[in-house]
Design brief:
- This protein has one domain: Peroxisomal Thiolase, Chain A, domain 1.
- Helix 3 packs parallel to helix 6, helix 7 packs across helix 13 and helix 10 crosses helix 11.
- The chain has a 10-stranded mixed sheet with strand order 5-4-6-7-1-8-14-13-9-10, with helices on both faces. Strands 2-3 form a two-stranded antiparallel ribbon. Strands 11-12 form a two-stranded antiparallel sheet.
- It contains 13 helices and 14 strands.
- By secondary structure, the chain is α/β, with parallel strands linked by helices.
- The radius of gyration is 20 Å and the shape is globular.
- Helix content is 32%, strand content 18%.
- The model has no long low-confidence stretch (mean pLDDT 94).
């Protein structure tokens, strides 16, 4: 018998709020949290806006040593983990540590600290040969992405499978998907799964500037992220994190845990086509959706809400619109679809986990988050994208998808826990 997987704890740090409740309040009200970059002087860049998180590590309970040791992304992951554990009501002291796993996703890991350390050692780039005497003693922590899930494991005493997933913008979705697999294959009973990314730094902003993937709509930051709108011209870079307590379903029921959602199915594919380009027919994403539906034993007509990748680039929005039509058939025209990136921006590897949190909360509250800033739909994007205002409706089953550089396409299906009431 296949072991089922429940989400019993959620922790979020996203633009516009300091926790899960604030995150949901932002989404359900249709407010946006994108603004001019304040983390550094972005005056020389093409795109000078982002979704920043107002984060005070000391106020979040991190010690001076933890703050000194950990990159900002690791700090996000640990703080969200602590929130998720507290939310779950699970006493980790009575759980066999060998049965607790960690699956963490990130696209650029500790890029912020690596860049800062390079600036110190190279005297702001003036010296070709860097001076290692100025190197931080924690440089290895910044260099090795595997340190991030290790920090999460230390935070909860996890001694089971501990993994870093880094495959671009689907990392957060795939990390949770891998956590689900660990429970289903009986390698763990509990998995701390999720993702964190803090890419708002000069080097990352410059990279996306170079390929013109981010929007130059600097004069209107709050309305710059416009998925599926005819006037969209790129995504808004962001930072953030979300972590979950994933638990074997029957175990969660026995202890009387509050279950936000059951993760019914997950699948991922690669188009083996182009690093950044997407085929117009959406075939690979459609295949990931098809398999996720099959694993979850869900008919396409059973989907009540689709959380789109919805980055706000023309090729992505059209690609996934085609994928929804291909995989859901006529139901694609009836089911509400929306992109929360319109409100919190695109936090690269973290966004897939942040969107899973949004999906679980949509089930919890029976509310479909809107696509903000959608005033003039692209004629080629002709589905129900829930413009501007959240929609109250019964939400029992949600499909969430992700698309990433390298051709990665992932999909996950979440269900309302059986027996739960609206």
């Amino acid at each position: 018998m296949t072991r089922r997987v429940a989400i019993t704890g959620i922790g979020v740090r996203a633009p516009g709020g300091s926790g899960t409740k604030e995150f949901w309040d932002l989404l359900s009200s249709g407010r946006t949290a994108t603004r001019a970059i304040s983390a550094f002087d972005a005056g020389a860049f093409r795109s000078r806006i982002a979704g920043e998180v107002d984060f005070d590590a000391a106020a979040e309970g991190l010690s001076p040593r933890e703050i000194r040791r950990m990159d900002r992304a690791s700090q996000f992951a640990v703080v969200c983990t602590r929130d998720a554990v507290a939310d779950s009501g699970l006493d980790f002291d009575v759980v066999d540590p060998a049965r607790i796993g960690v699956s963490l996703g990130s696209a650029v890991a500790s890029a912020t600290s690596l860049e800062n350390e390079y600036l110190v050692m190279s005297d702001a780039g003036r010296k070709w040969l860097v001076d290692q005497d100025y190197m931080s003693p924690h440089m290895f922590d910044y260099l090795s992405p595997g340190v991030m899930p290790a920090e999460v494991a230390w935070a909860v005493g996890a001694e089971g499978p501990t993994t870093m997933v880094s495959d671009g913008c689907t990392s957060g979705l795939d990390a949770v998907g891998y956590g689900v697999q660990l429970i289903r294959e009986n390698s763990a009973d509990i998995v701390l799964a999720g993702a964190a990314d803090t890419p708002i730094s000069p080097i990352v902003v410059a990279c996306f500037d170079a390929i013109k993937a981010t929007t130059p709509r600097n004069d209107d930051p709050a309305r710059a992220s416009r998925p599926f709108d005819g006037s969209r011209n790129g995504f808004v870079l962001a930072e953030g994190a979300a972590m979950f307590v994933l638990e074997e379903y029957e175990r969660a029921l026995r202890r009387g845990a509050h279950i936000y959602a059951e993760i019914g199915g997950y699948a991922t594919r690669c188009n083996a086509y182009h690093m950044t380009g997407l085929k117009t027919d959406g075939r690979e994403m459609a295949e990931a959706i098809r398999v996720a539906l099959e694993v979850s034993r869900t008919d396409p007509t059973g989907i009540d809400y689709v959380n789109a990748h919805g980055s706000g680039t023309k090729q992505n929005d059209r690609h996934e619109t085609a994928a929804f039509k291909r995989s859901l058939g006529p139901h694609a025209y009836d089911v509400p679809v929306s992109s929360i990136k319109s409100m919190v921006g695109h936090s690269l590897g973290a966004i897939g986990s942040i969107e899973i949190a949004a999906c679980a909360l949509a089930i919890e509250h029976n509310v479909v988050p809107p696509t903000a800033n959608l005033h003039t739909p692209d004629p080629e994007c002709d589905l129900d994208y829930v413009p501007l205002t959240a929609r109250e409706q019964r939400v029992d089953t949600v499909l969430t998808v992700g698309s990433g550089f390298g051709g990665f396409q992932s999909a996950m299906v979440l269900h309302r826990p059986k027996g739960a009431t609206a």
